[in-house]
Amino acid sequence: MIRVLVAEDHTIVREGIKQLIGLAKDLQVVGEACNGEQLLETLRHVPCEVVLLDISMPGVNGLEAIPRIRALSNPPAILVLSMHDEAQMAARALKVGAAGYATKDSDPALLLTAIRRVAAGGRYIDPDLADRMVFEVGLTDNRPLHSLLSEREFSVFERLAQGANVNDIAQQLGLSSKTISTHKARLMQKLNIHSLADLVKYAMEHKLL
């Protein structure tokens, strides 16, 4: 039996995933989490073979959680399930330690296949993304501007796009407001944007919200 922990902040999506996994005789949902902190705490006392992880969660997001999960003793395989269908986002997740990347509009049967594959020590990439990754990742001319952001800058960008202010983000990430303001200034410069309205517009245009 492959034990799965589902980390997803939207209740309806989380329940749908649990129902889908429940249809498979060889898979079992043993835990769930609605944010990164809850996920990390749950993993300390709920053993599993696979974490099904959403990238865009409040608090510690998926990209930040991946290396912390990998640092655990006997860490589970991490399969990212995200609404982001960009090759650069998939590459970013794999780079920090995910074993696979699937999108939320994937065929349900493919998602179950992906869970089984990463549980067995393999890797999985959404088929539609795989071709794009071959041609896009590493080709500078095709890279979106947000691919130039550091992991920390992207975390700040994501939270700003979701409506958090500098002080909120500083508290969430355990950093000073001054540090967050510096990250904000740098990421806005890299994205060539000049206001929070432009930032939100950019996030929406690139399906990062």
Oligomer class: single chain
Please give the CATH architecture of the largest domain. Answer: 3-Layer(aba) Sandwich
Total number of beta strands:
6
Using only CA atoms, what is the Rg?
Answer: 17 Å
| Broad structural category | alpha/beta
The CATH class name of the largest domain reads Alpha Beta
Global geometry:
globular
Strand content: 5-15%
Please tell me the total number of domains. Answer: 2
* CATH superfamily membership of the largest domain: Response regulator
Cα-to-Cα separation, first versus last residue: 35 Å
Q: Give the integer mean of the pLDDT values.
A: 88
Primary descriptors:
globular; 209 residues; Arc Repressor Mutant, subunit A; alpha/beta; Rossmann fold; 2 domains
Question: Would you give an account of this structure?
Answer:
- About 50% of the residues lie in helices and about 15% in strands.
- It is α/β, with parallel strands linked by helices and about 210 residues long.
- It has two domains: about 140 residues, Rossmann fold (3-Layer(aba) Sandwich), CATH 3.40.50.2300; about 60 residues, Orthogonal Bundle (Arc Repressor Mutant, subunit A).
- A six-stranded parallel beta sheet has the order 2-1-3-4-5-6, sandwiched between helices.
- Helix 2 packs parallel to helix 3, helix 4 crosses helix 6 and helix 8 packs across helix 9.
- The radius of gyration is 17 Å and the shape is globular.
- About 35% of the residues are buried.
- The mean pLDDT is about 90.
